[in-house]
Amino acid sequence: MRILIVGLGVVGGSYAMALKEAGYEDVYGLDTDLDTLKKAENLRIIKKGYIDGTDIVEKCDLIILSIYPRLVKKFIQDNKNRFKKGTVITDATGIKEMFINDILEILPSNVDFIFGHPMAGREKKGIDYASSKVFKGANYLITTIDSNKEENIKLIEKLAYNIGFKKVRRITPKYHDEMISFTSQLPHAIAVALINSDEEGRDTGSFIGDSYRDLTRIANINEELWSELFLGNKSNLIKVIDEFEVELKKIKIALENNNNKCLKELFVKSTKRREKL
Amino acid sequence: MRILIVGLGVVGGSYAMALKEAGYEDVYGLDTDLDTLKKAENLRIIKKGYIDGTDIVEKCDLIILSIYPRLVKKFIQDNKNRFKKGTVITDATGIKEMFINDILEILPSNVDFIFGHPMAGREKKGIDYASSKVFKGANYLITTIDSNKEENIKLIEKLAYNIGFKKVRRITPKYHDEMISFTSQLPHAIAVALINSDEEGRDTGSFIGDSYRDLTRIANINEELWSELFLGNKSNLIKVIDEFEVELKKIKIALENNNNKCLKELFVKSTKRREKL
């Protein structure tokens, strides 16, 4: 099976490394950045790098897209006459419902797009931060659509396990976006709001412990990617922000009322839930 | 210098371990739990454990209190006639202003209480989770009061550096509580609200990545301790919750207005601030 990774950033680079470790040999890379392709070639995590799809897309059986959501559509459009019949395409996009509908408008009928979401990433950009380790033990979500062939879904599932993911689940795009708004986008919104609510110019660094460090790690955020993810899942995200605000207000009201009992109940609930995770 | 650690829980136990590693030999423990004392003796991190202060308090030069805030006052009261003249007392309490005023009402004049806050801890309780590692590279805050002797403040500073803290700062109790409401209590409130806002009974664990894990780690929270800390610093905490809510609302409004530009600006700001940390 010949594999093409499109976009050798932090996620695509990690794919290339993990595929190599898992014994996949016939792996190629496509990226607009020559330096990145050179690095990937020098690391021997791809056989050869390409700056556009002209010579390589038609030769590949599996294409892994790890590029910004809006570039996925562009890639499909630019290469629609190049795909080999039966090519399997998969992606790493963090939102699904609106995104999939958008892609399906232009997807050629001779390819099978298995939409996937590896729940692993890093706050940094670029191949220099790539590492196969990020996939180890992580969750992988597949959002199937009616036209997907079972054998192709199985191929992606197997590949996910082979490169280190621990749990692979099939779900609907709608459910994916509901869950992800809560488990991924809401935490990012919170981290951004937390650090942005600091007063300008204070020496906050002298007053922090692990809790502040942990809660703001993802406030270091790729603004191009995450603005797309947020807006592409906005109704779900607004809903979970609202629900979060309700819970935060409970704490505030307990404080205002000196309600020690209520505070403790909220803490006991959160502790139980965290221990269950 | 003979040292007594009062409360051999996760913080006190970590103190005992770190003191031993730093070469302090004459260290004793006081705890209401016999098992804990036995464990500490077996680990040889204390010379001997005591279940009450009768025989040991009067013999010590430095007393480190790592017990719940409300128990600090009780300890002082119970032992006020036992302290040796010139004994230095320090603590590990996460709030200071109201707490210090409370203690000063009953503090005997023959001891010097250097109020301290080691910014290190763990979400778990008890000596089994103690580790000297938590102090390594961490921040230590000393909130001085007028009656403190310079030589005693220096003693605590030196001890903090000796057991692994990287940065020791002297600040006022008022400023301490302002900063800590933001860097410590607000993150805990957020983590609790985040996990409590999850819908009951979902298999959330299959949909999480590192971001949700990081942001909810401290939702596993000691409800006795943290309800005291929250209520003991309530006006500061309510203020920073309000400020956080304003920032979160900016994100929500940008989403509602499909304002990609505004979202990106918020992300660029948070990224810059995080990189500066």
TrEMBL record, chains A, B:
<protein>
    <submittedName>
        <fullName>Prephenate dehydrogenase</fullName>
    </submittedName>
</protein>
<dbReference type="GO" id="GO:0070403">
    <property type="term" value="F:NAD+ binding"/>
</dbReference>
<comment type="pathway">
    <text>Amino-acid biosynthesis.</text>
</comment>
<dbReference type="GO" id="GO:0008977">
    <property type="term" value="F:prephenate dehydrogenase (NAD+) activity"/>
</dbReference>
<dbReference type="InterPro" id="IPR046825">
    <property type="entry name" value="PDH_C"/>
</dbReference>
<keyword id="KW-0560">Oxidoreductase</keyword>
<dbReference type="InterPro" id="IPR008927">
    <property type="entry name" value="6-PGluconate_DH-like_C_sf"/>
</dbReference>
<dbReference type="Pfam" id="PF02153">
    <property type="entry name" value="PDH_N"/>
</dbReference>
<comment type="similarity">
    <text>Belongs to the prephenate/arogenate dehydrogenase family.</text>
</comment>
<dbReference type="GO" id="GO:0004665">
    <property type="term" value="F:prephenate dehydrogenase (NADP+) activity"/>
</dbReference>
<dbReference type="InterPro" id="IPR036291">
    <property type="entry name" value="NAD(P)-bd_dom_sf"/>
</dbReference>
<dbReference type="Pfam" id="PF20463">
    <property type="entry name" value="PDH_C"/>
</dbReference>
<dbReference type="InterPro" id="IPR046826">
    <property type="entry name" value="PDH_N"/>
</dbReference>
<dbReference type="InterPro" id="IPR050812">
    <property type="entry name" value="Preph/Arog_dehydrog"/>
</dbReference>
<dbReference type="InterPro" id="IPR003099">
    <property type="entry name" value="Prephen_DH"/>
</dbReference>
<dbReference type="GO" id="GO:0006571">
    <property type="term" value="P:tyrosine biosynthetic process"/>
</dbReference>
